[in-house]
């Protein structure tokens, strides 16, 4: 045995000795368990102090004084102000005044109330108001807290996570129904129509067989979907033409796969597609004169009062009335382009006024020589009438330089992601 030990390399021998010594020391030391036991031996019949600080007991102690408030919830009724809600809650107008004068943000939160909004009041054990909560969504609330004699307000938000989702549809009857069946919300449908509203006339040009695919964000709070986020990428096929749009994070705008802006100088239709009832086609034979006249515009039939939008930025060339056009507005967009809006019920702009694209310039009506209420819309290029639905519009702005490079890289990823989600969700 000893001779074997002696034959081992020097380093091994040194290690064996070292560990032997360490084990010997460990065995010689008292067992830690026996140490504890020794300390916990108390004499029978003798009183010992427990030495417990009640402040350190967690079971009965609230984590904060706010945790033991009792809450009362009030829904703002039609025509109700904060003063009325405070009254219903048994709170004084003096308190409301104190709150609204403690800061602009608090004032805005308490005075800009709408029917259906909720105010929650938190009272302490002495029935003193300590906190007010105004829920803004399932994950956000504006919270006013009493701090000393003062009030402090802040927006409190739960952590939001994002995930992607995908939807697609082929249109059989109309765009709205197809989008609803695909699971889109009303907001998303309007967002989608807004993205492609410069290329597609959603009022008149949607056909059976048109289709769309979208990749969009969902907001998650505590693992549950609470809201839809932005559309990240979308593809729309209209009468055989396919349009792609991808969100640019930097600007918040949409561009096509080549970095050209989706937003263009003119909207394809100067009114909300949801209001348009049909492709109105008034008889070419005039009901009064009996003559057949050339029709030089696009007619949109929609309920009287439907807002009419300026198709593009420009200056009102004429806002007037005559017996043929009824109330009419002409907008000059540049030396090249003029748009005309006829038979309005009401005009909301004046001659010479500057207007922005999408601005309401009047409402649809049946004034002038018409067979029924509709918007007659004309699009002139260098003084010549063109079909507003097919006319080639001025080229839109493109991204350039580094912004374009970044966008193009993201766009490729996002379009690929759209296709991957399509496969993942078994849309094939
Ligand atoms: Zn017409």
Question: What does this molecule look like?
Answer:
The chain has about 425 residues and is of the alpha+beta class. Helices cover about 25% and strands about 30% of the residues. It is built from nine helices and 19 strands. The strands form three sheets. Strands 11, 12, 13, 14, 15, 16, 17, 18 and 19 form a nine-stranded antiparallel sheet that branches. Strand 18 and strand 19 form a beta hairpin. It starts with a helix and ends with a helix. The model is unreliable at about 30-40 and about 60 (pLDDT under 50).
Please summarize the sheet with the most strands: 9 strands, antiparallel
What is the residue-mean pLDDT, rounded to a whole number?
A: 86
Tell me the span between the first and last alpha carbons.
77 Å
Q: Report the bound ligands by name, code or SMILES.
A: zinc ion
The global form is: flat
Strand content: 25-35%
Instruction: Give the number of helices.
Output: 9
> Radius of gyration, Cα only, in angstroms?
36 Å
How much helix, percentage-wise, in residues? 10-25%
The total count of strands amounts to 19
Class derived from helix and strand content: alpha+beta
Contiguous low-pLDDT stretches (5 residues minimum) are: 30-40, 58-62
How are helices and strands ordered from N to C? Answer: HHHEHHHEEEEEHHEEEEEEEEEEEEEH
């Amino acid at each position: 045995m000893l001779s074997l030990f002696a034959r081992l390399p020097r380093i091994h021998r040194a290690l064996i000795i070292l560990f032997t010594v360490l084990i010997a020391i460990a065995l010689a030391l008292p067992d830690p368990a026996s140490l504890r036991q020794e300390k916990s031996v108390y004499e029978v019949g003798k009183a010992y102090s427990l030495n417990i600080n009640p402040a350190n007991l967690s079971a009965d102690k609230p984590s904060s004084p706010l945790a033991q408030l009792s809450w009362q919830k009030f829904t703002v009724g039609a025509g109700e102000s904060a003063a009325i809600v405070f009254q219903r809650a048994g709170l004084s107008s003096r308190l409301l005044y104190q709150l609204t004068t403690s800061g602009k943000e608090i004032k805005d939160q308490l005075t800009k109330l709408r029917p259906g909004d909720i105010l929650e009041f938190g009272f302490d054990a002495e029935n003193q108001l300590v906190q007010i909560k105004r829920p803004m969504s399932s994950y956000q609330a504006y919270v006013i807290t009493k701090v000393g004699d003062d009030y402090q307000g802040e927006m409190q938000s739960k952590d939001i996570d994002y995930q992607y989702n995908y939807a697609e549809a082929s249109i059989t009857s109309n765009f709205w129904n197809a989008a609803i069946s695909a699971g889109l919300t009303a907001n998303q449908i309007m967002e989608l129509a807004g993205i492609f509203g410069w290329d597609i006339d959603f009022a008149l040009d949607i056909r059976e067989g048109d289709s769309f695919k979208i990749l969009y964000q969902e907001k998650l709070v505590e693992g549950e979907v609470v809201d839809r986020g932005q559309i990240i990428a979308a593809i729309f096929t209209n009468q055989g033409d396919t349009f792609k749009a991808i969100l640019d994070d930097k600007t918040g705008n949409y561009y096509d796969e080549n970095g050209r802006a989706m937003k263009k100088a003119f909207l394809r239709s100067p009114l909300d597609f949801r209001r348009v009832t049909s492709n109105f086609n008034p008889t070419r034979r005039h009901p009064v004169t009996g003559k057949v006249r050339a029709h030089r515009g696009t007619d949109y039939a929609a309920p009287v009062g439907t807002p009419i939008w300026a198709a593009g930025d420009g200056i009102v060339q004429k806002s007037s009335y005559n017996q043929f056009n009824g109330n009419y507005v002409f907008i000059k967009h540049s030396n090249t382009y003029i748009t005309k809006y006829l038979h309005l019920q009401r005009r909301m702009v004046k001659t010479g006024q500057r207007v922005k694209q999408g601005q309401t310039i009047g409402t649809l009506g049946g004034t002038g020589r018409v067979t029924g209420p509709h918007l007659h819309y004309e699009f002139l290029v260098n003084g010549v009438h063109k079909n507003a639905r097919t006319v080639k519009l001025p080229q839109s702005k493109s991204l350039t330089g580094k912004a374009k490079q970044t966008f193009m890289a993201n766009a490729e990823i996002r379009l690929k992601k759209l296709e991957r989600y399509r496969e993942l969700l078994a849309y094939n």
